[in-house]
UniProtKB/TrEMBL annotation, chain A:
The keyword Signal applies. It holds the Pfam family CopB. Residues 1-24 form the signal peptide. SUPFAM superfamilies: Autotransporter (SSF103515). Keywords: Signal. This is Copper resistance protein B.
Automatic annotation (TrEMBL), chain B:
Signal peptide: none annotated. This is Copper resistance system multicopper oxidase. PROSITE patterns: MULTICOPPER_OXIDASE2 (PS00080), TAT (PS51318). The keyword Cytoplasm does not apply. Residues 66-172, 182-358, 491-608 form the Plastocyanin-like domain. InterPro entries: Cu-oxidase-like_N (IPR011707), Cu-oxidase_2nd (IPR001117), Cu-oxidase_C (IPR011706), Cu-oxidase_fam (IPR045087), Cu-R_CopA (IPR006376), Cu_oxidase_Cu_BS (IPR002355), Cupredoxin (IPR008972), CuRO_1_CopA (IPR034284). Keywords: Copper, Metal-binding, Oxidoreductase. It comes from Halomonas aquatica. It comes from the Bacteria.
Length: 256, 609
């Protein structure tokens, strides 16, 4: 594990360093001081897929985010991904469920293989337990247009966990869309500090109704149901927390 | 000439422009809302209006404030207007075109469709290094052809900013048709967005500009028409491929204002004529991304030239003009009648419009736009299903019901009613059975089709998506017949096949699956060889493929009268071929003329040596 993080980091640095040089010579006899007839463009994008206020039936209100940004070309990209929330009124600072720096490579028309390092813990303070992890993932679009994010994490303690997220958009009108969403988490070992049990941890299913004011800005409302299973549920019960919850959300999807 | 009696402005716009420049104003933006050649009285061959007449022409490129559709904009201008001036040359001249770059970035001008020495072709990095800021580059070349052409920047995305204009070459000998007056109709698509931002939107968010996607309502409408099973299967197939059957145009009217001679539909540019005149319309699609369907309700148009080259007259009601193509049509308008020149975009999201009338201020009705068509299975068959065997293809065609009639099929393709290719079913089968169809063709000893024969898998009998051949007589590629056979009568010595490829999700476009940045060498043509270039469109978009420096003789089945073109529209799933005489030594650009497709990698260099 200890060797993994520096290696991945080195991989990312190497990728970034080689990106602008990803110019093939076309081999025709243009003098070397002539420009390439077609420039390669490196682009960047930052997306808040969810930036929402959550009102659960049982748990505490929270401000939650699901953020993704990338920089790069068509094949090689660097990603920064983060999910987390700030539970309101608990006197604690916001928490990163995940903050990941990934190298991403397009391996198929619709799929990117991603790998890098992650952090879980407090955003600014020591209010929350912290850990670092290595992550491998597959991000893309399944047949029928289901946006998918699969990830396998190995923590600095050697704990292995995995998650899968799926999202689908259904056009009701040109701007109004309905978006079912699901998130499933599993773990190979128990990590009580993080409320993680062995086996199936939790399932979360949500439905959002959004309106694209512009393609870049879409406010939405939604509802969700989530349930914890097995050891994970036991840990929650021991802490006096609910193991099943429903709630409503209101938020905005936006990108820059 | 009926033109002679007309005295127009005492001082032409061009003279005003020149005066402005002389007074040190630098730009005549405020004075010039449209290029001076776009005079309502048009042009006659003896009296060119507001044109930059050759053989010597000076052009200055600037970026300046100039209103477009009444809104403030900053297009690239050429001698103070955007689109740029009409350049008028004469066949047999030695043209001297001096281009001065007054921008703060490099620029260039490519003379689209002209046969000229490789160093004069104007593609930075292929023909020359480009024109640096403050620099003047002098293009010199003998003019060896005549007809309707155009010119545009070949640097980055500059073309999107209005860096384009018409280029007309008067014939040395009399042309095979007569007319009294001519008008240039230059179609362009303008966006108030930064072109780089358009490119980024295409790259980062699929369908960004498409506000005609299928919705749940379309599903129910189709279900009522075709039944649940057929509809669900059809939609399922598209969904499975992660594609949209409404992906007709990448960039739409949600950002574009479509201009005709620099004027928006509301501004309504007017082309005037006098009683009894026969008018030649030189139609140029100088758009970055937009295909147009052009018609003049109430008026038959006779197509007399395609891509600047004379063709045998074809009377039509409508013609589709791919990006970068030009068509010359003759019309004979009636007295005291106003006509709308209506250029509807292929995705039906917008239109460009002008009026043809005897007086300014006269208008005619603007036709209703058609509704966007869904792509049918000819596009689907092309994409990702090449490995599919014949039997599967048939199942797909039948969409689950064996007794499905031809008409039902059409409706599935055409989202209910309008805009369907009538014969798409037939051609689809055709495309799916290339191996079989070719057996019916006679072949040469070397196993190749004879020169001029249409490739199996071509759909030259169809205008394409969204055209209902029953509604009106629409020009199709099969109609195009050269006026006389082109000089090189040799059979092709070899065939070269190139696939048009793409990844819609990432907006990557390429030839043979490789973007320009990924290829390792140019495409080689043997000097003076006669070769057949076969283009196979594996994508579900149309691509206007443009070869610089040499003609492509489109093998549309017209034998020795195949037409020659500089830009070939290849429809989704189609397989077409062209004969090329590789007589132009040097390096030449070869690319898709959709600007953002080219910039995304659909570009190659052809080396003739």
């Amino acid at each position: 594990m200890n060797i993994r993080i520096p290696m991945t980091t080195a991989g990312i640095l190497l990728a970034v360093a080689t990106l602008p040089a990803a110019h093939a010579e076309d081999g025709y006899d243009a003098p070397s001081d002539w420009p390439s007839p077609m420039a390669e463009h490196l682009l960047a994008m930052a997306l808040f897929d969810r930036l929402e206020y959550t009102l659960p039936d049982e748990g505490e209100k929270a401000l939650a985010w699901d953020f993704k940004a990338w920089y790069g070309g068509d094949i090689n990209r660097v990603y920064l991904k983060s999910e987390g929330d700030n539970v309101q009124g608990d006197g604690e600072d916001a928490e990163f469920e995940s903050l990941e720096l990934l190298y991403s490579r397009l391996i198929d028309d619709f799929w990117e293989l991603q790998g890098g390092i992650g952090y879980q813990g407090g955003v600014f303070s020591d209010d929350h337990a912290e850990r670092a992890y290595g992550v491998m993932g597959l991000q893309g679009v399944m047949p029928y247009g289901i946006e998918t994010d699969l990830a396998l994490q190995v923590s600095d303690e050697g704990d292995v966990s995995a998650s899968v997220e799926g999202e689908y958009s259904l056009h009701l009108t040109q701007r109004l869309y309905l978006q079912p969403r699901t998130e499933i988490a599993v773990a190979a070992s128990e990590v009580e500090e993080f409320g993680v049990g062995k086996g199936l941890n939790s399932v979360r299913v949500g439905l959002r109704l959004g309106y694209e004011v512009t393609r870049r800005f879409a406010p939405y409302v939604g509802a969700y149901w989530e349930k914890q299973y097995g050891d994970t549920a036991d840990i929650s019960r021991a802490d006096g927390d609910a193991t099943e919850d429903t709630g409503v959300v209101a938020g905005v999807r936006m990108w820059f | 000439m009926p033109r002679s009696g007309v005295i127009h402005h005492p001082l032409s716009r061009r003279q005003i422009l020149k005066g402005g420049a002389a007074l040190g104003l630098g730009s005549a933006a405020a004075l010039s809302m449209r290029p001076s050649w776009a005079d309502p009285w048009g042009q006659t061959s003896v009296y060119a209006k507001g044109a930059e007449e050759g053989p010597e022409v000076s052009l200055a490129i600037r970026r300046e404030a100039l209103p477009i559709d009444g809104q403030s904009a900053r297009p690239l201008t050429i001698n103070g207007t955007s689109p740029g001036p009409l350049i008028r040359l004469r066949e047999g001249q030695d043209a001297v075109l001096k281009v001065t770059n007054l921008l703060d970035e490099p620029t260039s001008i490519h003379w689209h469709g002209l046969i000229l020495p490789p160093g004069m072709d104007g593609v930075p990095g292929v023909s020359f290094p480009g024109i640096e800021p403050g620099e003047t580059f002098t293009y010199r070349f003998p003019v060896r052809q005549n007809g309707t052409y155009w010119y545009h920047s070949h640097s980055g995305l500059q073309e999107q900013l209005g860096h384009a204009g018409p280029l007309i070459i008067d014939a040395a000998k009399r042309e095979p048709f007569r007319f009294d007056r001519e008008h240039v109709l230059l179609l362009t698509d303008w966006t108030f967005e930064d072109p780089m931002s358009v490119f980024r939107n295409l790259k980062t968010a699929e369908g960004y500009y498409n506000f005609q996607e299928r919705t749940i309502a379309d599903f129910f409408a189709d279900m009522r028409q075709n039944g649940f099973t057929a509809t669900a299967e059809m939609r399922g197939m598209w969904a499975k491929m992660r594609m949209s059957s409404r992906d007709i145009a990448d960039v739409t009217s949600s950002t574009y204002t479509y201009l005709l001679n620099g004027q928006s539909p509301e501004e309504n540019w007017t082309a005037l004529f006098k009683s009894g005149e026969r008018i030649r319309l030189r139609v140029i699609n100088g758009s970055a991304m937009s295909y147009f369907d052009v018609r003049i309700p109430g008026l038959k148009m006779t197509v007399v030239a395609a891509d600047g080259q004379p063709v045998q007259p074809v009377p039509v009601d409508e013609f589709r003009i791919a990006v970068a193509e030009t068509y010359d049509v003759l019309v004979a308008p009636e007295d005291n009648t106003a006509y709308t020149i209506f250029a509807e975009t292929m995705d039906r999201s917008g239109y460009a419009r002008a009026t043809l009338a005897q007086r300014e201020g006269m208008v005619a009705e603007i036709p209703e736009r058609r509704i966007i068509a869904d792509r049918g299975m000819e596009a689907m068959g092309a994409h990702g299903m090449q490995g599919m065997d014949h039997g599967d293809m048939q199942d797909m065609n039948g969409a689950g019901s064996d007794d499905m009639a031809h008409g039902d099929m059409q409706e599935m393709n055409g989202a209910g009613s309008n805009g369907t290719d009538h014969s798409s079913m037939a051609s689809m089968n055709h495309a799916g059975m290339q191996g079989m169809a070719s057996e019916q063709q006679s072949m040469n000893d070397n196993g190749m089709l004879p020169a001029g024969a249409a490739q199996p898998g071509s759909r030259f009998g169809q205008a394409g998506i969204g055209i209902d051949p029953q509604a009106r007589r629409t020009l199709v590629y099969r109609d195009l017949k050269a006026f006389t056979p082109w000089p090189d009568r040799r059979e092709p010595g070899r065939e070269m096949e190139l696939h048009l490829t793409g990844n819609m999700e990432r907006y990557m476009w390429s030839f043979d699956g490789k973007k320009f940045s990924e290829v390792t060498g140019p495409i080689h043509f043997e000097k003076d060889e006669r070769l057949r270039l076969i283009l196979v469109n594996d994508t579900m978009m149309e691509h206007p493929i443009h070869l610089h420096g040499m003609w492509m003789e489109l093998e549309n089945g017209q034998g020795e009268l195949i037409p020659r073109k500089h830009t070939l529209n290849v429809k989704p799933g189609e397989r077409v071929s062209a004969l090329i005489t590789a007589d132009a030594e040097g390096s030449w650009a070869f690319h898709c003329h959709l600007l953002y497709h080219m910039d995304a990698g659909m570009f190659r260099v052809v080396k003739v040596a």
